[in-house]
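F-box domain-containing protein
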Amino acid sequence: MDSTDWALLPKHLLDSVLERLPSRLDYLRFSVVCMSWNSVAEDNLSKRTAPMLLGYCGKQDKWNLCDIARDKVLDLQLDLPKRRFCGFSKGWLISVDENFIVTLIDPFSRVKGRRAKENSIISLPALNLRETSRKSFSELSDYYVLKATISANPISNAKDCIVVIIHDHNCQLAFIRLDKDTRWTYINARLNINIYEVVYVEDKFYAIDIKNQLFCFKVTTEPFNSDDIILVAEALEEPVLFYKKKYLVESNKELLMVHRFLRYSGRPRRRRSTTKFEVFKFDANNHKWTEINTLGDAALFVGDNSSISVSASDFECLPSCIYFIHDWDRVAHRRRHRDSGVYNITTQSFSGLGHASTLIKMSNRTPIWTMANVKL
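Predicted structure tokens:
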């Protein structure tokens, strides 16, 4: 049977084959046979593939994937730059190069041994830095953008794709519309707020600052001004702690805020460890945060990626748990990236990440959560 015959196999037969594949790696291999198989794999991957850990394997531009649910490092390497990724959203990694150019990378189109797909890397216009920032970040361009997210797939839905970043020492916001803008729009330089997290939910972006104030804004085709950023939830009545990370995530159609408490030890603060998590649910009617002590069947994945929520029963994860990995922070951003594990918010207990911990220890680049739910 030649390659054309393989391509003409009926979809119901290919679906039946996919149902019997034992691992996610087999899914990835299935997808490279031909274009029609790739299309069937794409339809099924979003149903079968749980978040996977992407870690640098110590070889030039080679990264490994770890299947968390099956506790296995996959026999598959991706050709990706040896730099920090400041985001993973809608199937795309986001990074910044030494010229402060923001780049979108489709990681699953860059499998070692295969020809990289066209448009697997998208370079956006360079960021406009103040001279003081350019000097201070001259050797740390990886860390100029603290976090980034996108609203839609930049290839299949470019007209709706907006890239939003948190950048500079003062944690400012900027955005660019992929098929409309030729330069970045800097939207909160005069608002005197420092943004620590941003997420896209339905047709709006939500952002939180150090005081847990929640802001909402939409990016339209009209010129953007500071009045378009609306305060939708006041600050929580709690002390402002420097050693605390914050994440926003949509879970079961609800907006959650995750607090991650950190501890540093050694001199000069060489080791970082997570001591606990707290989770709050946004009450849209009363514009308030309410603490919760269970996630139900949901499992959250937090790090430098746009936070992910999945059904634990569908994806073979632990329910009511937060899977966490080391990510950027102001105190120890250039130290070893070993602060990782699983936290059950109901029992308030920790457990390990299994073989993923070995991959993390091998890496001298910050790991990041990914999901193979895009074209492979």
